[in-house]
Amino acid sequence: MNDDVISLPLLEVDSLTVDYRTRDGDIRAVNNLSFALEKGETLGLVGESGSGKSTLGLSIIQLVPVPGVIVNGHVRIDGVDVVRLSDEEMRAIRGKNVGFVFQDPMTSLNPVKKVGAHFIELIRTHEPNVTEAEALERAQKTLNDVGILPERINDYPHQFSGGMRQRIMIALAIALNPGVVIADEPTTALDVIVQAKILDLLKNLRDTYGMALILITHDLSIVLERCDKIIVMYAGNLVEYATGTELHSHPRHPYTQGLLQSIPNIELAEQKLEAIPGSPPNLLNPPKGCRFWLRCSEAGENCETEEPPIVEVSPGHFVRCFKEADKSERNRKR
User: Per the CATH hierarchy, to which homologous superfamily does domain 11-97+178-333 belong?
Assistant: First the structure.
């Protein structure tokens, strides 16, 4: 009888904690966060600016900027814990196993290098036996896949529009057919028509290449529409984790509910948009207990002094909230 084969997730983040060590003190940007991502899935990371989304994405590829430090946890890509790898070993993983689409393509692309040169450097770094001509041929095919004419491979980055430069960044991220691609705010500074095209492109590439996709954004409406699973982050903490359908239908954390209430709906003529009062906390001196309690209309006394647990309120739906923990406990005792 054959042994059962255990299928590992493409990406597994386990108890990841990241600090920025400044002269004024340590800032906990990501706090004990865990999730897994399977082939063909799209995961959305959503939250306000400063919630830790981009730091989490950069942690996965071990590019947290100085003075950031991973102080605890594991990041496993294809079963390999990359937190334990040397810089040289990690360079072999980036691009090959995991691709990254950075926020600003104009600063990520070298302005004095033609587009083709970017692909040649990437491909031949990981596959030195590939000739320059072969690398260019592969680059042209990849550019064509993202909707850029192959003959534009000899143009410079400044000769492209913002949307086209973003497509080039996506092409570079998928050039080596990685299992996971992370897109950090891929639609920033693009008009709504181009935004939709970029998001459609990412979905089509995910389906075509069979990769897993992480979409980092501050826009909850985007991830609700585009993502299979969603992590809502606040002040470095995961506060809610569920499928897109479940999160839209049954948001449980007060912060998630506030985000949903702030999304305009053109079908509701009398809709009154609600703002979340206050501002995110100063992470150099975060509040005791729940980091959201100062802005929460449902906060109790324990919220002010104790950190709430993460509870599974329904299969696959996790919330960091005392209110939900109390509900789950009452239901369990019935």
Answer: P-loop containing nucleotide triphosphate hydrolases (3.40.50.300)
